[in-house]
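Review form for a predicted model. The reviewer records the input and the model, then writes brief findings.
Reviewer: anonymous (R2)
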Amino acid sequence: MIRKLNVLLVLLLAIVSCKNEKKLELNYTSGKAFGTTFSVQFIDRQELDFSHSYDSLISVINASMSTYIDDSDISRINSGDTTVTIDKHFMNVFKASKRLYGETEGAFDPTIGVLVNAWDFGPKGKIKSLDSLKIDSLLVSVGLDKVTLKNDKIIKDNPNTYIDFNALAKGYAVDVFANFLEDKGFDNYLVEIGGEIRGKGSNVIKQKPWRIGVEDPNFDEKQSYSKVVALKNEAMATSGSYRKYKIDEKGNRYAHIINTTTGHPHKSNLLSVSILATTCMEADAYATALMSMGLERSKEFLKNHPELKTYFIYEDENKELQTLSLNGFPE
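Model under review:
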């Protein structure tokens, strides 16, 4: 009798457990941020909406680093205000920029924006001409080595130095969103801002990994994806020269990426660089740096950075598309 009661009790507990177990929910939110779009999805056993939290994160990052907001910290610093005390977001991005500036020997430089603007990589068309005197006068203020951090304040050797974290700010924002979700204990999520992505776990509802497309370099601005990557516990970012470029009288394409030594636009056969890394900020920044370096210099650089899984799309001497995967980027 006691044995039968024990069996019955186990069965009742199993039934109660099944009733209490809720199905998994895919919580999805999308919107606009940082001049582009974002999407966040995570899996839990209940429906949750963190829209207000996402908006707050966006507002805080914008107030710190948006060059499009006149009274943001970075805009005030660029205009010469030396009283600005930077927040943790600005400090994190600035310190990372300093490190990458040194590692890449200046190929990654958040102060190059003044030259990008001068060359006017807006609507596509013929590349404009800038005389050497104009370029030299702008180069004087370029270089992150001319900017330091002291007592939570930014010190510029040259008051005309213009700082723009566009090359890694989106990636950093992805990390901020991801850390927000991890702090709440979610093990399966995917965050995307303007094409920069970070994921953890998998889509356990479909029992499939998070799958991410690497965009093809289409000069007609159409979107297509011929390569798909399974993303798990890492981030991916892509930098390309096929959206912002100019053409000279000989038909040569010049990328919107500027050579930080010469001040001239980058003429390169490299069309895009995609990087898988631990954080999206690093993936974003290194992708930009490698685009600036070009293919051959990038290959040498990556020998000393095996942690950066990298995928190149480039044109060969016959103007045909070629690809190259290094450091374990999925084939």
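Findings: The chain is about 35% helix and 25% strand.
Further findings: The radius of gyration is 24 Å.
Recommendation: see findings above.
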